[in-house]
Design goal:
Elements: E1 3-5, H1 7-15, E2 20-24, H2 28-33, E3 40-41, E4 59-63, H3 68-77, E5 84-87, H4 90-96, H5 111-132, H6 138-154, H7 158-164, E6 181-182, E7 185-186
Parallel strand pairs: 1-5, 2-3, 2-4, 4-5
Antiparallel strand pairs: 6-7
Helix pairs in contact: 5-6, 5-7
Length: 187
């Protein structure tokens, strides 16, 4: 059975001599928007195929955004005989405690969250327009539902790909022509 570890206790553990492996089970885009220093990203849907990556000494501390996915992953790993801990409150609790995070993306929301928001907004818009203007607008909601079903079955997400191209999801770039260059570095 996995034990729960509080954020203050885990912060102490990180600086102590005890060995552990911090596994962040969120999606790569969620991980990029902010993760605990030292965390290794192993998305929940990859855990079963990557169990051999966990075959090391020391406890495994699982973390996600709030703790729910970490509990689910703990259930998958319990039969493997690993010492498992779940960070109580997840990354959200870590951030709320004012502890440092590593962010490798400028996106404020994960791409998955953006897809859920956009799809929900389009479905809601289709329903409202169908009720207020014409029942033909219901096709918009059906089209989005079809797209989400396709995404779930195929693992491809056209809406996610489209949102990934939006300006707010692009990282900063360095144009060497526009920058002063001193010893190969942007000034």
């Amino acid at each position: 059975m996995a034990s729960i570890i509080s954020v203050p206790r885990f912060a102490e553990l990180k600086t102590g001599p005890e060995r552990f492996h911090l596994i962040d089970v969120r999606s790569p885009s969620e991980y990029a928007t902010g993760h605990i220093p030292g965390a290794v990203n192993m998305p929940m849907d990859q855990v079963e195929s990557r169990i051999s990556d966990l075959d090391r000494e020391g406890a495994i501390v699982l973390v996600c955004q709030s703790g729910q996915r970490a509990r689910m992953v703990a259930g998958l790993l319990e039969p493997c005989g690993k010492e498992l801990r779940i960070l109580e409150g997840g990354t959200s609790a870590w951030i709320k405690a004012g502890l440092p995070i590593v962010a490798t993306s400028v996106t404020r929301w994960s791409l998955e969250r953006q897809v859920r928001f956009a799809a929900g907004l389009l479905v809601l818009t289709g329903v409202v327009l169908a009720l207020a203007i014409s029942s033909r607008w219901m096709y918009l909601s059906g089209f989005i539902g079809l797209g989400l079903t396709f995404s779930g079955v195929s693992g491809l997400c056209p809406l996610g790909s489209l949102l990934g191209l939006m300006p707010w999801n692009r990282g900063a770039s360095c144009s060497f022509e526009a920058q002063n260059v001193d010893r190969g570095q942007c000034a």
